[in-house]
Write a structure and sequence with these properties.
The protein is mostly beta strands. Helix content is 13%, strand content 33%. It has a domain at 43-127: Sandwich (Immunoglobulin-like), CATH 2.60.40. It is built from 2 helices and 7 strands; from the N terminus they run αββββαβββ. The longest helix is centred in the first third of the chain and has 13 residues, at 14-26. This is SHSP domain-containing protein. It comes from Clostridium paridis. InterPro entries: A-crystallin/Hsp20_dom (IPR002068), HSP20-like_chaperone (IPR008978).
Length: 130
Amino acid sequence: MNLPIIKSPISLNSKEFFEYIWDKTFLDNNNIIKTNNSFFKPCILELDNEIIIYADIPELSEENITIGYEHFFLIISIKNLNITNTALNIASSNASSEVRRIFYIPNIDIDTLSLNVEDGELALSIKKCI
């Protein structure tokens, strides 16, 4: 039985490493680019004195969102989702779930957190510590 020789990612040159990461991240088993249907894709904007996080969260309100900050990790959780299964890739149509995003953001003042949810859009602002 002839098994392919697979190099460790550590021993790859830069071109091989890029191709390895590209294949593992963006291609499925048939070498077709993966589609990402995941829910709650945030965008982060870092300014001189503040961090702003935006995300589309259709059909949800502020009551569904929990925010925590522990050991320099900002944790945003959205619970009790009542959206379609295709957006979450859930088998059951009556399933409730939780989606969580975790960000390493040191030196922020969590007491300055400002959260706004309007028309299916989340906007979160946190001041940096100086």
